[in-house]
What does this fold into?
Amino acid sequence: MLEVKIKRTLPGFNLDVDFSVDGEILGILGPSGSGKTMTLKCIAGLIQPDQGLIKLNDRVLFDSSMRVNLPTQVRKVGFVLQHYCLFPHLSAVKNIAYGVRKSTRSEVNDRVSELVGKMRLNGLEQRYPRQLSAGQQQRVAIARALAPEPEVLLLDEPFSALDSITKEQMELELMEIQDFYKGSIILVTHNLAEAYRLSSRLAIYEAGKVAQCDQKERIISSPASRKVARMLKIRNYLDGFISETNESSIWVTIPELDTRLRVSANGHDSLVANQHVTIGVFPDYVRIAEGPGQNTLLSSLDRVVNAVSTVNYHFSLKTISGKSLHIETVLPKSDARLLLTGQQYYLHLPPEHVAIITNG
Amino acid sequence: MSPLWVSLKTVSTTMVITVILGIIAARWMARYHGKLKPLIDGIFILPLVLPPTVVGLVLLLTFGKNGPMGQLFSLFDTTVVFSWPATVISATVVSFPLMYMTAKSAFELVDSDIEDAARTLGAGKWKVFRTVTMPLACPGIIAGSILCFARSLGEFGATLMLAGNIPGKTTTLPVAIYFEIQAGDMRSALYLTAIVLFISFTSLVCLAYLRMPRRVKKIVSDTGQE
It folds into this structure.
């Protein structure tokens, strides 16, 4: 269990974050410059926060009120830095052996060969970092970080240096790490898809603050704010208010469109009637319906964009006050249909895939 | 052969002092970014740009009978001026800037993230310095040592002013060459010159070899993956 509650003030930037991780992968997601790496460096003790508390499994690593600040080398925090930062003058095995906390040479060798096996580095033991591919370097970096048996593993943008195919493979390997590494893992990334695939919980960073920290599914179904929703790549928004709730459904009235949409109650709670909300829908979930029905909106097609494996349709809706609302949908090419721009079509918003944003 | 012997003794003692002081000063300044950095840098590098006579005179004033250091040494009944240690002092002062500058840029080039990685792996400050910083800065440190060796071997002006010309004691190779020529003994002068040429040239060639980038073949993965 790692608890982090720290503040750090810099000219033009304030870090003020509060979250915890417990034996799982926490993905920290945020744009560059939002304080993600700084948070990791504070946990590792490479940067000292101005105030706060960092606690790792009953050990206080940092506590400004008690003036505790353990030096990096005794924190037992494994850290894979962004560019791996392997020791260029040491071979792969010597890199891994660097941090092994064992007394005899044979114990050290056992630990190193165990990690070489687990990280599939057999045959690469004597190579120097510059003789390894980016993917291999990353495996060495992870093995090296795990060698001293850290209580938490920090990964800073571990996939940013990899090409997309190696990246997919490394993602799978990272999931396998959990088979033998039981501590918590914090994964910092600016890539939503990557964070979602790998983590069970997400902390969304926004300008030095945690905008939301929750189970990933909950973040998707109820983003804390429009900014979070935008970071999740939700593109379609409709403002309204809760008109009715029951056990299975929430009804949201959209006054601008003079319509009521049904949202399945699953994953949403603490909503009261008349509460102002914004609903958000991923373009991937918006479907083109055959005709009018529940949760359908009549919209006219403005533009069709051909992507690699998908087709993106841009629609617009006329509101009561005469404004125009934008709605986007993405269909895989296999499901794409020949739609004509300027024509009107019915769009369907599936109730189980509508996000509700309370602080829109 | 006595000038060669004096020179070797002086140069080796100087090297030990300069390399240690240079590494300490360079390491400290490479990570120091305070307001005084340009000032301290200036003081450390100054002897390199000053005329040897100026360095010599400043040293004479410092280590002379009435100078601060001279006063200090006189408490122990020793005088530095015109003694063998004076050759070491002048050589150290003029060669220090070269060691300092080369080592500092070597330390500055060491990626601090790599040092941080070592710390997260449980290494204390001293272990990081010994096992990461020094090996990575090593080529620069060796280059600095060789430059400092060449510079202290060639030291003439300040040595002559502070240590004088006492055969067998303070007469180093460059000083000896100067006085052999003055005395009209061309043969001895040429002989000593050949020695200096040989030593200096050899050390520069060594330096060039050390500076040569090591060629490492990029091994293509045998499995064809990645």
Remarks:
- The CA atoms of residues 87 and 146 of chain B lie 19 Å apart.
- Confidence is low (pLDDT under 50) at residues 216-226 of chain B.
